[in-house]
Structure formats: structure tokens, C-alpha cells
Design goal:
With 924 residues, the protein is mainly α. The protein is built from 46 helices and 7 strands. Among the domains are: 171 residues, P-loop containing nucleotide triphosphate hydrolases (Rossmann fold); 57 residues; 75 residues, no CATH class; 74 residues; 79 residues, Alpha Horseshoe (Serine Threonine Protein Phosphatase 5, Tetratricopeptide repeat), CATH 1.25.40; 56 residues, Winged helix-like DNA-binding domain superfamily/Winged helix DNA-binding domain (Arc Repressor Mutant, subunit A, Orthogonal Bundle). Keywords: ATP-binding, Nucleotide-binding.
Length: 924
Amino acid sequence: MVWPGRPAVLLGRRAECALFDRWQDAVKAGRGGALVVLGEPGIGKSALLDHMASTTVGFRVVRAAGVEAETELPFGVLHQVCAPFLATLEHLPGPQEDALSAAFGLRTGAAPDRLMLSLAVLGLLSEAAVRQPLICVIDDAQWLDPGSAQALTFVAHRVGAEPLGLVFATRHAGNGLRGLQEVRLTGLGPGDARALLHSALHVPLDEGVVERIATEARGSPLALLELPRTLTAAGFAGGFGPTDTAAAVPGRIEDSFRSRVLGLPPATRMLLLVAAAEPTGDSALLWRAAGRLGIGVSAATAAETDGLLSIDTKVVFRHPLVRSAVYRAMPTSQRRAAHRALAEVTDPSEPDRRAWHRALAAVGFDEEAAAELEGSAHRALARGGVAAAGAFLERSVALTAEPAARAGRALRAARAKQQAGAYDSALDLLALADRGPENERRAADSELLRGQIAFARSFGGGATSVLLSAARRFESIDASRARDVHLQALAAAMLAGRLGDECRIAEVAHSARRVPAASVPRASDLLLDGLTLLIVEGRGAAVPVLRRAVSAFTTEELAPEEELYWLWLAGHGAGLLWDDESWRVLATRLLRSCEIRGAISILPVAAATRAGLHLLSGELLQAASLAETAADVTLMTGAGPVAYAEVGLAVFRGRDDEALAAIRTATRDSMARGEGMALTYLQWATAVLHNGACRYEQALESARQAGADSSVQRIRNWALAELIEAAVRTGHRDLADEALRELCRTTGPCSSHWAAGVEAQCRALLADGPDAEDLYRTALGRLERTRLCAAVARVHLLYGEWLRRERRHLEARNQLRQAHEMFVRFGMDGFAERARSELSAAGEPTRTRRSWLGDQLTPQERRIAMLAAEGCTNPEIASRLFISASTVDYHLRKVFRKLKVTTRTQLAWLLQDAQPIPADATRL
């Protein structure tokens, strides 16, 4: 609180004010960031924010606040923050401009993805901050609506090299605010507490009473100002009344406000209730509603005199606890009357707010109000407000009497809740929908939604049986839909793998085979047919159909939902065919589709898939960038797949401690979620790590575990190659022979260079004399025609090791030198050390690893440098890395200085295999 007569000093908060001053200086200097002010109600958060806003120098300050009654209305607080800058929307990239325009109802069109919307807000505020340093102050952040919360916390985590700051005041730091700089407010010290208390008293008090109030307030500034109002005359005289020191201070404060409200005249209480029910603070609206209720202007006098609220151009409650105390203190009948009056006077240009008030005023069933809420839900979905749509529809269900309409609305509400991640609420609504009149289509849709919720929660485990049941329901209703849902069930079964019911994959495949084929098959139909043929009839029957499916996904125009839902599975099909080029095309297409559409839920999968190809190609820097992207999104959303990219990167780098720790964590995650596909990947990765470090017994055990999975898992097929190498090195020839036979069953029907190269490499490990040499040369010849450079380096290593054992040291050194140089260049330190050791044993002096110029860059600088070297513009880099263009420019300038380059062409040459910069590199 502010000391009376000295407004520049905030009583008891000198340390916090000094911290804010330092933070403000850093923001103004272009080191943007966020602060989170934490504390219980009444502890002084709003007072501190007021002080911060009033003492900024050279900043534009934008203020907004969450309101408890509006937590389910879409983008309310976000609009408060962005409204002053909407005139500059046209400066944003097209997809971002479209996302913000749709969210704020400035245009009609597809609902914006939440990540794209968040990027747009970052771009809009960063652009404004370039013109004038900007601080956004958000009070009562615990009541932000979900859309506003996600966008604003996203900006808070991504703001960097611009004069932009955000300050959040909240009772507790939710997921989105964790990791930001915190200022945790506690109660005032004894001296400051007593000083504040005395400043608010108008009569002298007995020291015993002062001590009692200070003790009960526990340093809460609001309590120190409010608790004296609750004392009786006897209490003021001597303080002999009972002391309830066990009561929570916020509860005591709200009780105090409630008592004060109930002591006001009836008309004043009703005016306060109308103000509490309409949180926009529109005083004109308040007086229109008051007129409907016969409340005159004089009713405001008592409330303003008592200090509960002020009415000017805006209606402002003294504290959010006043609003909640007013609303809870009034009987239900009066609440309905207040909402009814507000509905009647709300402008038709705000149909959603009017519909919400009308719904809260309704008694019993009201079809007209329910229909209006349904219309509001449609508008909310068009703006991307899935949480708001769920709230509108959920309320409409309660107002609907007709059983079939009630069940239909419950199903639509459940779908919106599922999209918003409110799974428990969605399941409750599905139970309501199932109690409606019998309807096959609704029952099938309900079962499908249950399966999708189960899939979202477990990434496979537990979802297969529900999705399969839904698929069978659709068979008699919509064959095309039945095939789509069978494909979803198959994907769930494949993800569950060994951790699911072992017969489920076969059961889903056989069930799908019974559904009539499409007369004109879509890409997804071909994929379903190819995968089910593989399971039911084997690889020989499946390969031609899988090839057609992969070709369709790589060449045909696809609907956005097909791209996002099925490209990863089509990429899996390409992996089963050992078709690395199609896999590359599909993985790149999926990643770009996610970036363009801002598909945040799919992005970690897309990034991990593309990172896998970079790893096999020896492009560890690019893989690292994507691994960090996947980790960023998972951190932002709190959900995502097992950390495939992070594990793969640590393994290929050969960093034992880092890799083994990541594998242990990911294994726990995959077991907990029932994600068997991830478990197979982790066992394959463990085998690669141990083979690279010549720990062949450990590699053998991990590879055997991975190789025990179904042949429908592409990673299992890769593990067979690791198993063969480890088995040969440990003298288990029978295991190696068996694994080779199984590997050849996967590579034989395929005609790719990757398949032929891996098969030749594994045959060479088991061969002797000239046959082995011919096979190694064949493996090199085939793999060198791919972009899988890490695989090429491993063949050079194996060939060199074989030549050394044959005592052909000169030839061995040539192969081992190539392997060593490639591994060093890629950053595959484990395999590089193995090659170095073999090279030394072959008689060539060992060489130390040359320092790569990029080593002096930070991880963020490396990511930006790699994308710039690929030719991406600053806005494109910003979109890919979820940062602002200003931050990209800041880091890129540092990269140029560190690497002593002046153009992007020079940067590309420098980062490509550590090439020297050509003298004629042109400036871009």
C-alpha cells in the first residue's frame, strides 16, 4: 500500500520496487521479458502493479485484467491487450494476420490455431514495442480465459530482443507461467503493518486491539484496511471479542465485504449485483440495466461512500473479492433478475454476451435461450474459442427439454470440451448424450469421441478397443467414415505396440478388411489397405499397395486434416518400405503443414519425425533445432509424445550420461502411457549407443528387445541391423543368422538403395574373404546414392575394421579415416572415438577433433544460423522457432560477429561441413 502523503513510495515493498526498476531498465535496453507477481488475495498485487504502471518512464503501458465471470468467454483479455495495436495488423505475415482477425471477429473464416494466434500476438506486440517500449500489465491472471492465457504466456516465454515486457499478477503460477521470473509477495512486516493500520484508522485504538488486528491480518494489506470495519463498539473499546485466528485471511476479507454489502439499502445491493454480473465495467450499460429494475442514480451513493466501488466512465470495484462477495451474497432469484435486465439492455452487436446473460436468467428449460447459446458456440468456434464454445453448449444442454435435442447438444458440447482439453467434462457430457433417445449415428460419434479422448490421454494405450468399437458402429452408417475410424484404431494399436493387447493389431486389421473398399480410393484408404495387408497377408501382398499409398501422400493434394492426421502414418509406411526419399518428403510436408497452420498438437510429432531423418543423414545440428522445437512445444502445452528427438540426438552424439538419462526418463514415460512404439524406439536407440561405444553385449540385449516387436514397426526392422552387428561381435552367430533372415524378409520385397545397402552391410558382417569385401563395397555403393550419410560412415567404419583384421592396414586406414572424418564432421562423438581407436590400431597417428566454428554459438544462435544458412528469412525463422523477428535479427547479428562473416552466403558455406568461405561469396 502507498504511505499516506508519499505516493512515490510503496509501503513495505522497497525490494520489489527496486527489482521492478532494474527489470524496467533491462526491457528498455531491448532485453524483453516477463515478471509474475504472486500472492494470495489482498496481499497487495494490484497495488504493486499500480505503482509499477505509474512509475514507468518512456514506456507505453497497456493494462488488462481477468474477471472470474468471463473465464469461459473467448479472448476477452487478449483483446484488451491487443486492441490498441490492431491498426498495424497488416504488418504481420498473412497467416498471423488471418489468425488474429478471426479470433477477434474481424473476418469470417477457419478458426485460428492457437499456436498461430500466439505467434501473431507476439508479432503484433513486438512490432508495437519497436515503435515505443511497451509494458503489458495483466492483473488477476488466474482468471484469464484459456485462449488469452495461452497466447499471453506464450509471448511471455518467447519475448527476447525487443523492448517489450509483460507483468502478470496472479494467485498461483499455472503451467503457462512457470519458469518466468517471479516476485512472490508475502505479508508486510510488523512495523509496516502497524503503520498501514494506523493510517486507515479514524479513532485511536487500544494497543491490544491494534495487536489483535495486526495478528489476524498476518501482514495482508487489504486485511489491515478491512478488518477494523468488522469490529464492534466493544471491540474498539477493549478488544474483548473472540478472535478467530484460524480463519483464512482471504475468507475473512470476503466475509467482511459480504457483511458490508448486506448492510446497504436494497436498491444499492441490487445495483452492486448488476455491476458484479456484468464485468465489462460499462457504466452506461449498468445504468440501462438499473433503469429496467427501477434503480435510481442515488443508489450508487451508499456504495461509493462505503468505498466498495466507483462509477465514472467505467465501473470499478475496490477489489475482485468485492465482486465475488456481492454475487455470492445475493439470492438466486435476484441474480436471475440482474442477468435478465442485462440481457434486455445489451446491444444486439454483442449477441454472445446477451445470450449468456439470458441463459443465466432462465428458470428451468428455455429452448430459445438454448438456441441462442448454440449460435454463440458456433461463433466462438469460428474464432478458435473452443473452451467458450464448450461453456455455451454445456449451458444450452441444461436449458434444453426435448430429449433428442438435449443429447445432440451434449455431444457437441463434449466435442468442444475435448478440443479444449477438458476431458473429464467431455466424458460427463457424453454420458448425458448417451441417455438420449436411441440414435445410431450419435452413438457412433459418442464412441469415437471417447476413443479420441483415450488416445489423447495415452497416445495409444487404452484407446484401441474404444476406437475399434466406434469403427464397427459406423460400418452400417457410413462406410467411408468406418474406414477412417479403423485407420485411427490401427494407429492407436501400432502406437500401443507391445504395451497394448497383442491381438489388437490383428483384430483391427481383420475388422478393417471386412469394410467395403472405396470405389475411388483416397490416400488414406490405400494406407489402411496397405497396413492391414501387411498384418493379415504379409509383406509380399502389402508392398505394392503401400507404395501406392505413399505415392498418393507424396504427390496428391490433401485436405488439411488429412495432412495433419495421416502424414506421420504415411511416413511410417515409407519407413516400412525402406523408402527414405518418400519419408523425407512426407516428414518435410508434415512439418511445413504444422508450421503453416500452427497445428500445435501435431508439431512435436512432426519435428521428431523430421529430426530422425536428419540424424540418419548426419545432420545433427538440424536435428538439434527440431528436438528443441519439439521440447519447446511440449513445455508450452504440457502434452506431447515421448522425447524421440531428444533421445535420438543424445545417442547419435554418443554422449553416454546424457543419452542414458534421457532414455531412462523416456522409458518411464512410455511405460506409464502404454506407448509401446516408443519403447521399441528407445531400445533401438540404446543399441545404437552401445554399438558406437563397442559395448556389444549391452547392445545385443537392447537390440534383441527391440527386434522382438511386430514387423509392422519400422524401428524394429532397424534394430535387426544393430542386433546383427552386436551378435557378430559377441560370437552369437546363430542369433545373427536368424536376425539376418528376418531382416531380409523386410528388405527383400523393397527396391530402395537403403534396403539393399543395409542388407549388404549385414551380410558382409557374416561373410568371409572376397564375399565380405564385395558386400561392403555393394553396401557403400547403394547407401552413397542416398542422403543417409550416417549409414555411409558406419559402413566405412565396419569395412575398415574388417580390412584391419585382414591385416590390410593401408586400405583399412583409408576407410577408417573417411569414417572418422565423417563422424567428426557430423558431431557423432561416440562413433568418432571408435573410428579413432581403430585408426590408431591400424597404424595412423590419432588426430584431435578439430574445433567447429559453430561450437562458439549458443544453442539458440545455432538454430537461427542453420535456418538462415538454409535461406529462411527472419520472419520465417521467427515463425519456426516461435520467437519474434526482432529476436532473430538480434541473434543473427551476434552470429555474424562471432563467426566473422558478413553475408548469409558466407554463413551457409561456413556451416556446411565446416567449409572455408569462398572468396567470391556474394552479399545477399
